[in-house]
Design a protein that fits this description.
Strand order of the largest sheet: 1-2-3-4
Radius of gyration: 39 Å
Strand content: 15-25%
Mean pLDDT: 76
Distance between the termini: 103 Å
Largest sheet: 4 strands, antiparallel
Number of strands: 4
Structural class: alpha+beta
């Protein structure tokens, strides 16, 4: 039997000395292959075997829960809303009159009334 595929569920010591399957020190799988000098990408869960890079640490470096702080009040929420300027409405109406006049002139030219 291939020594690489022998199941050894015993957890490794600080540094495993013998190559073989040991408990995954990264905690992502049941076992990980120790090649005698380093952890390999070979992993196993039950009879399923696969590859997983050993250098990825999935635990956060630090996680601190901070106390919630209330949001600052919105200062401009109590200010009165200013009335819109009448110049905007006048400009819009004047632009509409000019556009309608141009459309009428173009239509008259197209029909042949104005030449």
């Amino acid at each position: 039997m291939d020594t690489e595929h022998q199941a050894d569920a015993s957890p490794p010591a600080e540094s495993p000395t013998e190559a073989g399957w040991h408990a995954d020190p990264f905690g992502r799988f049941e076992r990980r292959w120790w090649d005698g000098s380093r952890w390999s990408e070979k992993v196993a869960d039950g009879r399923d075997k696969g590859l997983d890079p050993p250098g990825i640490d999935t635990t956060p470096a630090s996680f601190e829960v901070q106390e919630p702080t209330p949001a600052a009040p919105i200062t401009d929420a109590t200010l009165p809303i200013a009335a819109p300027s009448p110049w905007g409405q006048i400009t819009m109406a004047l632009g509409a009159v000019v556009m309608v006049s141009l459309v009428v002139l173009l239509a008259l030219f197209a029909v042949g009334v104005l030449r």
